[in-house]
Design a protein that fits this description.
2 domains, 32% helix, P-loop_NTPase, transport, Rossmann fold, binds iron/sulfur cluster, alpha/beta, 11 helices, ATP-binding cassette domain-containing protein, 12 strands, globular, membrane, four-stranded antiparallel sheet, ATP-binding
Length: 322
C-alpha cells in the first residue's frame, strides 16, 4: 500500500512564561492509502497537537522537532502555496465543535463552495451547485444551501463540516473527536455517514477520539497515546483482544460490558502525567501497578510483539524485553 503520511520522532513543546509544556515526546506513525487509523488517549495525551502538527498549524510559540512527510515531501519545508494546496485539498480536517468551526456570517453553501473555489478552481455557480450535492450526500436537502449555521442543529452542523471536509475528495481525512459535542443518537448517524463515505471514496482516515467504541467501529489500526507518546500500536483486532500495555488494559477494563456483572468498573489510579513535569523513565510508571525499578529510570523502547502489534513497556509477565 502506498504510504501517504509519515511522522518520525516528533517532539512539540510550548514555552510559556511559567513553564514548558511537553505536548509530544517522540511520536512516530505512518498512514497508508485507504487505511483507517484511530488515535486514542485521555484528554491532554497530545492527540490534537498531533493533528495540528501534521497540517503545520501549530501556534507560533510551539517548538517543533522531528519529521513529517506527506507523500515523501517534508511538510515543514513546503512553500506556502504547497501548504495551502495540501490543507483542505489533499488533507482535510473535521473539528470537534461544528459551531466554532463554521463561520456564522456565511451560509453553509458559501463555506463549502469556498473550499471548492480555492482548491478546484470552480466558479461561484459551479461551486454552489456542488455544495448542494455534497449536502445531499450527508443527508441535508440541497435547498438548505443558503441557510446559516445558526439555523441548523448540532448534528446537522457536523454533517456540514463533513461535507466541507470531503468537498475536494481528500486523500486523508483527519477527524478530531467529530462526535464528542453531539448526543448519542446523532453520534451514531454521523459515524454511519463517515463509514459509508470512507468506503465509497477510499479516503484514508485518522480518527482522533477517546472513545474506544468509535475506533472499533471505524478503524483497522489503533495507536494508543499517553503523555505525548504512542505506547501501543497495532490492528484493532489484536490490540483490543490482547492489550499488552497496562494503560491500554486499564482503558479497556474501564469499559462497561453488557454481559459483565461487575458492581464497579475498574479505574486507572491517579491522573494523566502533567506535561509540564513529566516523570523520568516510563511516563506511566507513577500509575502502573507493575512498575519495576528499570521503569523509573529509562524510557522503554517500542517493541514489536507480532507483525501487527507493538508495545512500549518493559513488562510482559514480569520479564524485561530483550
Ligand atoms: Fe508499567 Fe513499567 Fe510497562 Fe511502564 S514500562 S507501563 S511502568 S511495567
Amino acid at each position: 500500500m502506498e504510504e501517504l503520511l509519515r511522522i518520525e520522532d516528533v517532539y512539540v513543546k510550548f514555552k510559556t512564561e511559567r513553564a514548558t509544556v511537553h505536548a509530544l515526546n517522540g511520536i512516530s506513525l505512518k498512514i497508508h492509502k485507504g487505511e483507517s487509523l484511530g488515535l486514542v488517549g485521555e484528554t491532554g495525551a497530545g492527540k490534537t497537537t498531533t493533528a495540528l502538527a501534521i497540517l503545520k498549524l501549530l501556534a507560533d510559540t510551539a517548538d517543533f522537532q522531528g519529521n513529517i512527510t506527506y507523500k515523501g515531501i517534508d511538510v515543514y519545508k513546503m512553500k506556502e502555496h504547497e501548504l495551502l494546496d495540501m490543507r483542505g485539498g489533499k488533507i482535510s480536517m473535521i473539528f470537534q465543535n461544528p459551531l466554532t468551526a463554521l463561520n456564522p456570517v456565511f451560509s453553509v453553501g458559501e463555506q463549502i463552495a469556498m473550499v471548492l473555489r480555492t482548491h478546484k478552481g470552480m466558479n461561484k455557480r459551479e461551486a454552489m451547485l456542488r455544495a448542494g450535492e455534497l449536502l445531499e450526500l450527508v443527508g441535508i436537502p440541497k435547498f438548505r444551501v443558503a441557510d446559516y449555521p445558526s439555523q441548523f442543529s448540532g448534528g446537522m452542523r457536523q454533517r456540514v463540516g463533513i461535507a466541507a471536509g470531503l468537498a475536494c475528495n481528500p486523500e486523508l481525512l483527519i477527524a478530531d473527536e467529530p462526535t464528542t459535542a453531539l448526543d448519542v443518537t446523532i453520534q451514531a448517524q454521523i459515524l454511519e455517514i463517515m463509514k459509508s463515505l470512507q468506503m465509497e471514496y477510499k479516503t484514508s482516515l485518522l480518527m482522533i477520539t477517546h472513545n474506544l467504541g468509535i475506533i472499533s467501529e471505524l478503524c483497522e489500526k489503533v495507536a494508543v497515546m499517553y503523555a505525548g507518546r504512542i505506547i501501543e500500536y497495532g490492528t484493532v483486532a489484536e490490540v483490543f483482544t490482547n492489550p499488552l500495555h497496562p494503560y491500554t488494559q486499564g482503558l479497556l477494563g474501564a469499559l462497561p460490558g453488557l454481559d459483565d456483572e461487575k458492581e464497579r468498573l475498574t479505574a486507572i489510579p491517579g491522573n494523566i502525567a502533567d506535561p509540564r513535569q513529566l516523570p523520568e523513565g516510563c511516563r506511566f510508571h507513577p500509575r502502573c501497578e507493575r512498575c519495576m525499578d528499570c521503569c523509573k529510570n529509562s524510557q522503554p523502547p517500542m517493541t514489536k510483539i507480532s507483525e501487527n502489534h507493538s508495545v512500549e513497556c518493559y513488562a510482559k509477565g514480569g520479564k524485561l524485553y530483550e
